[in-house]
Each structure stands twice: as C-alpha cells, then as structure tokens.
Amino acid sequence: MSAVVKTRGLSKQYRAVAALRDCTITVPVGRISALIGPNGAGKTSLLRLLAGLALPTAGDVSVLGTAPRQDPAFLADIGFLAQEIPLYRRMSAADHILMGAHLNPRWDAASVRQRLDGLKIPLRQPTGTLSGGQRAQVALALTLAKRPRLLLLDEPVAALDPLARRNFLATMADAVAAGGLTVMLSSHLVADIERVCDHLIQLSASRVQLCGDIDELLASHKVLVGPRKDTGPIERAHSVVQVTRTPRQTTLLIRQGGPVIDPAFEASDVSLEELVLGYMSKDGTGDSARPFPEWLTAVGGDQ
Amino acid sequence: MTWVVWRQHRGQLFTGTAILAVFAVLILITGLQMASQYHSMMASCTASHDCDDFNFTLGNPVMTELVTLTTGVPAIMGLFWGAPLVARELETGTSQFMWMQSVTRRRWLTVKLAWILAATAAWGGAIGGLVTWWAGPINALNNGRFIRGQFDVQGIVPIGYALFAVALGIAAGILLRRTLPALAATLAVFAAVRLGIANFVRAHYLPAVTTIYSYTGRGFTPAGSAWIFANGTVGPNGVMYTPNSPGQLGQLEINGMGLNGLPASCNSLASGAHPNFGRVLACAASHGYRGFFTYQPASRFWAFQGIETGIFVLLGAAVLRIAAFALLRRDA
User: Fold this and answer.
1) How far B6 CA sits from the closest chain A CA (Å)?
2) Nearest to B93 among A55, A84, A143 (CB)
3) What pLDDT shows up at residue B270?
4) Hey, are the CB atoms on B97 and A104 less than 8 Å from each other?
5) What pLDDT is stored for residue B143 in this prediction?
6) Which of A5-19, B34-48, B289-303 has the lowest mean pLDDT?
7) Which residues have CB under 8 Å from A138's CB, separation 6+?
8) How would you write chain A as a 3-class SS string?
C-alpha cells in the first residue's frame, strides 16, 4: 500500500509512434527513483503520464492512490519539472514566488527565498537573464515550494555543469530527507544516480527493462567471468542479461536464479554502470559485444 | 488566478489604456469642435431658411480618416490580445509551469478568458461609444450611419467584432500552438468573416421595405439615415426600372428610369434644348409610371446593430468552444 506510483500495462501511442509500451512499475514511498534510458526510450512520456499532462492510450496508472487527473488536490500533490525548465523569462523569481502563492493551497515561499539566497541567485532579476543552472535551481525551488508528495523531474541536471548539478541534487536530496516526498528523476548520468538514487527504472525502446531498489538489483545480479565454453547450463539456471565473448573468455551478466556453482566461472558483484549497460544492450539485436552506446556520454536532453 | 492574469497582462492593459486615452482626447476635442460647428451652422441656416439646401461640411478630414480606421481596432485586438494569449505560453513552455500549479487547466482557461474578453468588450464598447458620440452631428444631418463604413464603427457592433476577433485569436493560438501562424490565421479569418457578413449577409437581416410613390404628389424619400438598396421607376406593367436595368440607360435618367422605357410622347418632352423634368414626370405618371425605393428604414439601425453584434458574439463563442475542447481534451 506504500506505493506512490503504480502502473500496469501502461502504454502511450503518438500517432504511429509508440512512446511507451506495456509499462508496469511500482515506486514505493520515500524513494528517489532514477528513470534511465537512451533518448527516445519513453522517459518523458512516462513522467508526463504520471503528472497527468498526457493521457494513456492503454493500461492503468495510479499516482498517490488515484488516476492522474485535473483536480486541484491532485495537482497540489505533484511537482513536475519539465526538461525545458519553463519559467516566464521576463518575470523574476520573486514574481514566480508570488504567482505560486496565488495558485497553490500549500506554498512555502520562505523556503524558495532561503534556497535561492543560499545559492546567491538574485530574486529580483528576470529569470531570462539567469544562467541555465540558476534557472534550473529557481524552477526546482518553486516546484518544491508546492510541498508536493511526488516530485517528477525530467532530465533536471542535463544542462548543468558539475557543480550546479551537485547543488541541484543536494537540494533535492535535502527535501526528500525532510520526509514525505518521493522523487522520480530521469537522467543519463549514472554517476549522479549512484550518488542520490535508491531506486531504478530502466527504459529501453519504450519498454521497462528493470524496476526495483538499486541495492536489491545489484544483489541479485552477478558478473561471471570464465573460459570460453558452453554457457548452456548457466543460461538454464540463471537468466542471462548479457554475454560478451572474446577468443579466450566469456563474461556474463546474470540475474541469479540461485547460487553459482560452476567453478570455472568466477562470480563478482556488478556495478550500477555494468548493470545499466547490460540491460541497455539487451534490447535490439542482441549484439552484446558492441561498444558502449553513445548515450552514456551524451549530456544533451531528449528531443 | 485573477491575480496571475493581472500580473501577466497588466503591461498590455497599460498600453491599451494609454492608446485608448490618446484616442479619447482626440475624439473629445474634435467632437466638441464639430458639435459647435454644427450648432452655429444650423443656427445660421435656420435664420436664413435654407437648411435644406445648405451644404454642410463638418469636422476635419484627418480625424474622419482616423475614425474610419477604427474599423481595424477589433482586428488589432485579436492580434495583440487574442492570438498570443495561449499560443505564447505553449510556444515558450510556460504552460507547463502554469499547468503544474494546483489549478486545473479548465479553471486556468476560464479565468483567463473571462478577464481578457471582459477587457475586450470594454475596449470595443469604449471605442464604439466614443465614435458614436463624435459622429452625432454627422448622424443628425442624416449622412448615412446605416451605410457600410459608418455602421461598422458606431453603436455596439465594435464590441461584437472585438469579441469575435479576440476569441478567434485565442482559438487560433490554441489550435496552431504558435503565435506567428496564429496571427496570420486570425487576420485572414477575421477579415474574411467581417467582409463576407458586411457585404453578403447584413442586407438580409430583415426583409427590405419597398415603397412605391406617385410622381404627382410630393414625392418620397426614405426618412433619416435609411440604407437605400435601390430607387427607380415602376412601369404600368410592374417592371421596376433602376439606373442599372439593362437597356434602360438613356442619355438622361429620371429616378433611374431610362428615357427609352417611356412612351414616345413623354420622351419627346425630355429631348430638345430645354427638357422639363416636371412635365416628363407628370406625363410618365399619367401613363401609370410610379417611383419606388427599396431600403432598410433608418429606424432599423439598432435592430441591425443588435443582430450583427449577436452574430459575432455567437461566432466568437463557437470558435472558443471548439478551441477549449481541443485544449482540455488533448495532451498538454
């Protein structure tokens, strides 16, 4: 009952394009969930469906116990920050704070001022004149001022430099630590996810590949390194996510179905990056030996 | 939400107020001048008993032109107030900020529309009212406030036009999601509807009146600022001759009756060096010819104003309804 987000068979079709297919996920309360996947995997679509900005083509979606809907009480509980960091460019942060006060039942204006003062972001300057990082901070502070119970962030750190990114994530983590808040944030950057997230949803080609607490996901997966030989027995005992073969050795990423008993293989813990990449290459052709996909290093946003 | 609308649009409100104030000052000054000019002219012609023949020219031509230009005010309101209202928010993404506050999209749209349309009606009414007052002396001289051009800037129709133009702009912005195409669409559709209704529909709001009169009496002219569609002559066989009836255009026309249509005996009175129209008419009357006017009586001015305003308000409501449906139904 403590799931904040629960979807079953959720699908979203835009004319001929399937943005999201058969998505079934659960995000428990209090988690910071990372939504990860290559560009066009459906991350933005999923977040917009959860926020009620888009309507599902098929499937069920439950957010905070109800279907997302146009209702002041529901909207008050959701904080959504779009990738474009939408702010009125000619208005200052102070103007936005005043607007928010008129538009929301709970509004913590003091917290926004405090956060922005702490970051030395001018309150009276039009937001159009602020840097990208400052704008993102203003938008996040405004989103948090609603005191939402679910915070949905679409690539919030994509445009930020490393320091701004760290500040941004710290602000978010503080808000979660204060309690009562669940976060879903989409990102490309495994390092950031490792630092702040405790839950992971991986999307590839409009489908969910992984969903669960990061600790459990890491514990249930192993990397096996062994000689080049028949991997049939292993494939029968475990579910193999990815196989990489070189002339001398075989590396397997497996989801454990039990203890690894083949002594020829050495089992080791998997890193979050290996896990994410393994599932990323699982989709498509099955050519698991291809180099790291480009998206891992890409910093730009989904377009 | 009201405060937010005020905060977002107060700049436009100030600009609009400033322009309206300048216009009002011009109208007041020239209107007062024109009124006193009218009164002194009336006084002098009444004294000399020649008001019927007096050739009045009122006001100054620049101001008359400016007043004629107020025909364009509704379109300008549609472009500056209507089209960007939602389109700019969609374009810049600020709708995503607004729609994630604790206000439903329906309420957001409703409050925004209510204030913008109220301001539009107020501005349209103010400009229409000022022009109507200004044109008082001109109207008093029966210079045709019912004819196209004057009908369109006086009375209450400017409110209807302005509401329609702004509604159209908002709807175009919602459907096209971009300001510039919305501007173009607003202008094109507004111009087409306005011209179409003024030229092809307005004349038919009420069936026109045809008055047939005898040439032997005192004659007849529709009273006041009537909208005259045709005037001419009805033959004994009931055929109506107007100046444009084919084959009836002689070198001389009386009440639109080509002389060719008259019996030869009457026609001969019209030829020669000194034609006598009085005798031609009397001759025509004795052969059963009568005069006629087809027109909308001046007394229908306000009925026509009301009908035209109603049509534009309803059209505006219809386009807004379609656009609101599209905005609230589809994904944000």
Assistant:
1) 10
2) A84
3) 65
4) no
5) 65
6) B34-48
7) A87, A93, A96, A116, A121, A127, A130
8) CCEEEEEEEEEEEECCEEEEEEEEEEEECCCEEEEECCCCCCHHHHHHHHHCCCCCCEEEEEECCECCCCCHHHHHHEEEECCCCCCCCCCEHHHHHHHHHHHCCCCCHHHHHHHHHHCCCCCCCEHHHCCHHHHHHHHHHHHHHCCCCEEEEECCCCCCCHHHHHHHHHHHHHHHHCCCCEEEEEECCHHHHHHHCCEEEEEECCEEEEEEEHHHHHHHEEEEEEECCCCHHHHHHCEEEEEEECCCEEEEEEECCCCCCCCCCEEEECCHHHHHHHHHHHCCCCCCCCCCCHHHCCCCCCC
Angle between helices A109-118 and A93-103 (to 10 degrees): 160
d(CA B126, CA B153): 11
Residue from B45, B255, B205, B204 nearest B140 by CA: B45
Contact between A98 and B104 using a beta-carbon 8 Å cutoff = no
Q: Which tokens belong to A169?
A: 């994530």
Q: Which among B96, B105, B328 has CB closest to A86?
A: B96
Nearest CA among A267, A237, A269 for reference residue A250: A267
B71 vs B59: which has the higher pLDDT: B71
Residue A293: pLDDT band (50, 70, 90) is: very low
Q: Provide the shortest C-alpha distance from residue A265 to chain B (in Å).
A: 51
List of chain A residues whose C-beta atoms are within 8 Å of the C-beta of residue B96? 53, 80, 82, 84, 86
Between β-strands A3-14 and B290-296, what pairing exists: parallel, antiparallel or unpaired?
unpaired
Contact A204, A280 (CB under 8 A): yes
* pTM of the entire predicted model: 0.86
CA-based nearest residue in chain B for residue A49: B331
Span B160-172, average pLDDT? 97
Q: What is the pLDDT of residues B252-283, one digit of tens each?
A: 455 555 555 677 777 777 666 666 677 777 88
ipTM of the complex: 0.83
Comparing CB atoms, the residue among B7, B107, B332 nearest residue A99 is: B7
The backbone region for B149, taken as left when phi is positive above 0, alpha when psi lies in -120 to 50, beta otherwise, is left
How far is residue A204 from each of residues A51, A207, A281, measured CA to CA in Å? 21, 5, 9
A99 neighbourhood in chain B, CB within 8 Å: 3-4, 7, 101
Lookup: tokens for A282: 């699982």
Give the 3-state secondary structure of residue B232. Answer: strand
Q: Which residues have C-beta within 8 Å of that of residue A132, sequence separation ≥ 6?
A: A85, A159, A160
Q: Is the dihedral of CA B98, A167, A201, A216 positive or negative?
A: negative
CA B68 → CA A144, B135, B150, B194, distances in Å?
54, 11, 8, 15
Three-state DSSP at B296 gives strand
- Of A102, A106, A138, A146, which to mutate for an interface test with B (greatest number of B Cβ within 10 Å)? A102
User: Taking CB atoms and an 8 Å limit, are A103 and B103 in contact across chains?
Assistant: yes
